[in-house]
Fold this protein.
Amino acid sequence: MARIETFDEHPSGTLAAGDGFKLADVDPDSTPGYPGGKSDGQALLAELDGKLATLQEKLFAEAKFGGSKRILLILQAMDTAGKGGIVAHVVGAMDPQGVQLKAFKAPTDEEKSYDFLWRIEKEVPAAGMVGVFDRSHYEDVLIHRVRGWASPQEIERRYVAINEFEARLTDTGTKIVKVMLNISRDEQKARLLARLDDPSKHWKYSSGDLKERAFWDDYMAAYQAAFDNTHTEVAPWHVVPANKKWYARIAVQQLLLQAMEDLNLEWPAAEFDVALERSLVERS
C-alpha cells in the first residue's frame, strides 16, 4: 500500500491568527504544512474519516452517561469559499444523528428585535453533539461594519460580547473551532463564472454575491479586525487557504480531530455485569 502523505506541521499552529497575524500576508493558493498534492490530500481525507467518526461516537456516547463535552465548528468565508464542501466532505463523515448544523441567514424581524446573540444562543450544540455554524454571530461584526449598519462603538461592544459568549460556552464544556476559509478575489470570480456555466449550479448563484464582492477590500479589513479582537486562547481563529478545496478540507479535518482529541474522550464504562449479560445472550 502506498504511503499516505501527512502534515509536516499541524494546522492548529501554522494557520492560527494570533499576535502579529496579517490576513494580507496569507496566500490563498498555498498549502501550509502539507507537502503533498491533490491526490495525496484526497487520500488523507478518506483515511481519517473513520478516526473522526469514532471520536464523534465517543463524544456522543459520553453525553449519554452525563458528559457535558461538545464541539462547535464556526465557518466564516466570502461567498463560494467552500463552506458547503466542508460540511459535505468533512462533517459528512460523521453520524448525522450527532451533528447539529445551522446555516444562519439574514435575521428575521423577530430576531432583529433582540440583541444579536439571541438567535445564536438558541442554536449552540447540546452535550455530545458536533455543532456547525455556516456563518455565525461574526456576520454582525463583518457585514455590519462593512455596510455601516452598526456604529463603530456598537461593533466594539459586539467584540466584547462575542468573547464573553465564547468563554461561557467553553466553561460549559464546548470546544470551539473557528475557521475562516480564505479565497482570493480572482478565485471567487472563477467560481462564480463556473456556476453560471453549469445549469445544475444556477440555484447556487445570487446576484447579491456581486454586491458583496464590490466591498472585497472592506471585508478583508473587517475580517482582520475580527481576528485582532476575538482571537482568544479558548477560541482561537484559524485562517485556512481555500483556493484549493482539497487542502481546505484536510486542514479543517485536522483541526476537528485535534479538538476532539483535546477533549480526552473515553468510552463509557458498562453499568452492568458484562460476563453475566454475555452468558444470558449465549443461552438465549
